Amino acid sequence: MIGFASCGSFCTLSRAMQQMELLSKTHELLPIVSPVVATTDTRFGKAADLLALMESISGRKPITTIAGAEPLGPAIPLEALVIAPCTGNTLAKMAGGITDTSVTMAAKAHLRNGRPLIIALASNDALSANLRNIGTLLERKNVYFVPLGQDDPKSKPHSMVCDFARIPETLAAALEGRQLQPLLTK
Description:
Radius of gyration: 15 Å
Order of helices and strands: EHEHHHEHHEHEEEH
Strand content: 15-25%
Helix content: 25-40%
Structural class: alpha/beta
Distance between the termini: 32 Å
CATH architecture: 3-Layer(aba) Sandwich
Largest sheet: 7 strands, mixed
Shape: globular
CATH superfamily: Flavin prenyltransferase-like
Number of helices: 8
């Protein structure tokens, strides 16, 4: 089973859901969402609709709490965990060892088993405040990034977003123990 966790980069959630749908054709999926995703309605959609979509894709109710995510390491081992989208906030917490959401708990619990964690980053501060966190996580064993690039260099020079369409091939590479290259796209 593959864990599929989502954080509050609301403008990219639809792209992540397309990839979740695609992965569901070849993998059993367990959805996990951050508290913000579980409770926040935005101009991009309602939280309840997203949770219902994830349940319809996976056949499972999304995990929304720290207590629900904690068993993912010892009691419910996953083959891999994909975080799509992963926000800069969640990235910083994982780099700093902070476990205060369902997604960060899922990542911590999962990494205890020495299995791949795939990060599909979408962050407005990837090339500023979060650059060192990207570097920190690139050095960690069993952590892999979906290839990413600047999404709007002129208007948002520090922003980077992964190529969501490359989640399946990044997952396949991570399951083989390798980082998909090139990591940085144009």
